[in-house]
Structures are given as C-alpha cells and as structure tokens.
C-alpha cells in the first residue's frame, strides 16, 4: 500500500503511529504555513526598516540575553547566531532520548525577543519559559497537567494559541512514548524546549521550528534567530587542550556536572582545566578523539547575513563553548575578514573555567585562531590578522580581564572603549545594558556616517 500523508498547518507529513487515547483530544494546529520554504525564510519577506542599523551577533544562550531588551531600542534588525551543540541541562535529556540538535540556546533567545505588549503575549512567554520542578515525580505530574490543558499556566492564552502549542507538546510526548526502551526524565524540563523539539521533529526542519516559535511568540519580523548549523542531527562539540587532552561535550568542557538539573553558568566551583584550551571542533556523536572530527556545513542564511550587515558583534559569554563553535566553520572567517564594517568584541567582565588567566589580547588571539582554523586541518587554515576580524573592543569598567593595550596595539586593535558596568552576584562584573547599547550605537553610527 502506498504511504498516505496528513496535512497539518500546510505541511505534509507521514502520519505517526496513532496517539494513545490520553492524547486523542489534542486539537489540530490552526496556524497555516504555505510551505517549508516560506517557513524557513519568513522573516526575509517582511518590510525592512532601513533607518535602523543591521547587526549580526555571535553569542550563546545566556550572557547576551541580559542586553537583548535594551538592544531593541537601538535596532530590531539583528541576526542572532547561536550554536546548537549545548548538551547540558534539560537539553541533554531531549538529545539523549530523541536525538537531534540542542535547541536550548535558541529557545532562550526566542523568549527574550518575544512580544510583551499584551497580556496574552506575556502569558505565552510565561508558559514557554516555564521549567518543571527538580523532583522527577512532581515534574512528571505537572507536565501531564500542562499537556491536558488543565494547568494555570494556560490562563490568558487564547484558544488558537493554546491549540497550536498543545499540538506540538502532544507530538513531543508521543515521540517519547514511541521509545519504550528510554525512560525520559522531566526534571527541570523546559516547556519551551519540549515545544521546540516537538515542532522540529514533526517538520523535520529546525528552521521551520524556529519560524513556528517566532509566530507563536510574536518576535519582530526583522529579528532573526539563526542556528549556525541548520541540521536535524545531533552535534557534539569537542576541545583539544594544549597538553593534548581531548574533552568531549560542551557541558563537560565548560560546566562539568553529573546532576540532571539547572546548569550553573556563573562563577561556580568547577575544577580548573588541566591545561588551556587550544581549539574546539565538532566530532561524531560516538567519537572520543580528534580522529573522529567532522566538518558540518554552516547555515547559508548566516553567511548571507554576514555579507550584508552593518556591524558584526562577538558577544560576551563562554568564549570557547558559546562563540567559537560558530566561528570555526568553513566560510565564516572568509566573509568576516572581507568586510570593512565595525567588528566589535564585547569583553567578559570576569574569568571562567575556559579563560582562566586570559588578558584582553588572549581573547582576541582565541577568536582569531578559531576564525583562521589555525590548529585544524592545514588545508582549511587561513592566515588573516587579528585586526581583520576585530577592530573595536568594548570593555566593562572594573572588570577582571587585564586590558593589555600594547599587545592589543600589536594586534592592530586601537579602538578600546570602557563601558559602565554593574555587579552580578553570580558572575561578577557585567556590562550595564543601557551603557553597553549606547556605546555600541556610537560605534555603528560612526560607521553609518562614513558609509553615507
């Protein structure tokens, strides 16, 4: 018998096995998406705002989130490029049981960009930003209440949104039930991650899942959330230390823990690395050493944005596990080095496990090496200078990182701007968001004046 296909939201898909009776009351998806192509490129068809500068920001899912709201006041024409290799927290459990790329950082940024102008928008954001309890039994019980539509989190969410979100949460649950040999732990699970995973698996497209999430949370059309690698496969990050040690897994590199629960990305008491990090690379999902290195293809949408934006930003955060996974891909260094726009590094305010003992010039060297792929396959290496990748440093006042002006000058970097800072009890010195965006706006406006 020939395969039959069902139509949900405009996408044709092979039907899954019948849902258990528990889920038969799950509503159909009301939103209409004409095609996967339109879903993947929805933002491109909107009317641009040429009076606002366009930015591309390389970041992870945590540190830069604190300034996203303030950035909206400067411009909404921002392409947020995020890695999909995070294997910590509740993301790890989804990847373990269902496979696929990590969506936690993408979900986190989407929530920060989500509309907050109405009570319903706030209700949707609250629902998709909710985390289940740490206790596994309590988490599972609360999950079923949410799934059945009986939880108080649904208050304020209208029927169309409710049916859309529940449809994909139910699909996520069905995918778990189809794997009887794997016991899924809901502890500290993110409802937004579950929604994302359900949409990605259903559409077999990470881009389509981001599009759907953007529609549901009403993200500005000019704001792009781009996975640096658009894939349905699991991605594993590895790193090589200068002493030759190979570490497998982003969380093991940055915040090693054996506990299922929230990952502390602050100044936690994790053990120091035995040696500094030499490079990061992607490895096969079962790989254990550099012989298992793989070379995934960069998302073409990222290259397109890099070629046209008015400013490129390397955000603060985990240097080797948030920034470098995006920078080591073929094509990234080539385009950045060819651009004459501002290329701004937002320096961290404190050291972490990855950057112990680093100065400002050490950050520049690490980024340069990643973009040049200095320590990878010799056939893929570039020889570009640091100043071809970074021409401006924004530095938080009173931060821990030494600002070695002479070394920066020798790297060809002369524009170093001190920005007002504030103290965060978890991570130490951080940028004051208003001051940071004002300083970034000044850098971009200088360029825009010369461009005109």
Automatic annotation (TrEMBL):
Superkingdom of the organism of origin: Eukaryota
Instruction: Fetch the InterPro entries from UniProt.
Output: CofD, CofD-like_dom_sf
Which Pfam families does this chain map to? Answer: CofD
Q: What is this protein called?
A: Gluconeogenesis factor
A molecular function (GO) held by this record is: LPPG:FO 2-phospho-L-lactate transferase activity
């Amino acid at each position: 018998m020939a395969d039959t296909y069902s139509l949900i939201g405009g996408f044709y898909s092979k039907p899954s096995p019948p849902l258990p009776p528990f889920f038969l009351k799950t509503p159909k998806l009301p939103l209409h998406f004409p095609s996967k192509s339109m879903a993947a490129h929805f933002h491109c068809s909107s009317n641009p705002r040429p009076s606002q500068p366009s930015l591309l920001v390389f970041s992870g899912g945590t540190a830069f989130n604190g300034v996203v709201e303030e950035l909206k006041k400067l411009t909404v024409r921002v392409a947020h490029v995020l890695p999909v290799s995070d294997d910590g927290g509740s993301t790890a459990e989804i990847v373990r049981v269902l496979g696929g790329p990590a969506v936690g950082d993408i979900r986190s940024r989407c929530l920060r960009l989500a509309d907050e102008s109405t009570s319903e928008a706030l209700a949707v954001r609250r629902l998709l930003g909710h985390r289940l309890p740490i206790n596994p039994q309590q988490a599972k019980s609360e999950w079923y209440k949410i799934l059945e539509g009986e939880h108080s989190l649904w208050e304020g969410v209208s029927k169309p949104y409710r049916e859309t979100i529940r449809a994909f949460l139910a699909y996520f649950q069905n995918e778990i039930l189809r794997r009887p040999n794997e016991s899924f732990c809901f502890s500290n699970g993110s409802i937004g991650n579950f929604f994302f995973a359900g949409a990605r698996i259903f559409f077999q497209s990470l881009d389509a899942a981001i599009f759907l999430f953007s529609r549901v949370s009403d993200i500005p059309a000019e704001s792009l959330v781009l996975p640096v690698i658009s894939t349905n496969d699991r991605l594993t990050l590895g790193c090589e230390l200068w002493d030759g040690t190979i570490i497998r897994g982003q969380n093991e590199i940055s915040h090693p823990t054996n506990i299922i629960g929230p990952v502390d990305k602050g100044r936690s008491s994790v053990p120091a690395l035995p040696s500094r990090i030499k490079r990061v690379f992607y490895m096969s999902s079962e790989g254990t050493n550099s012989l298992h290195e793989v070379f995934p293809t960069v998302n073409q949408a990222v290259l397109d944005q890099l070629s046209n934006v008015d400013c490129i930003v390397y955000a603060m955060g985990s240097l080797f596990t948030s920034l470098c996974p995006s920078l080591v891909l073929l094509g990234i260094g080539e385009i950045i080095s060819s651009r004459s726009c501002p290329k701004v590094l937002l320096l961290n305010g404190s050291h972490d496990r990855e950057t112990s003992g680093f100065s400002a010039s050490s950050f520049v060297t690490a980024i340069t090496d990643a973009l040049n792929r200095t320590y990878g396959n010799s056939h893929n290496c570039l020889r570009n200078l640091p100043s071809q990748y970074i021409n401006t440093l924004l530095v938080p006042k009173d931060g821990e990182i030494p600002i070695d002006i002479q070394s920066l000058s020798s790297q060809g970097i002369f524009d170093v701007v001190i920005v007002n800072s504030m103290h965060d009890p978890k991570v130490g010195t951080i940028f004051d968001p208003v001051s940071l965006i004002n300083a970034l706006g000044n850098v971009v406006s200088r360029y825009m004046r010369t461009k005109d």
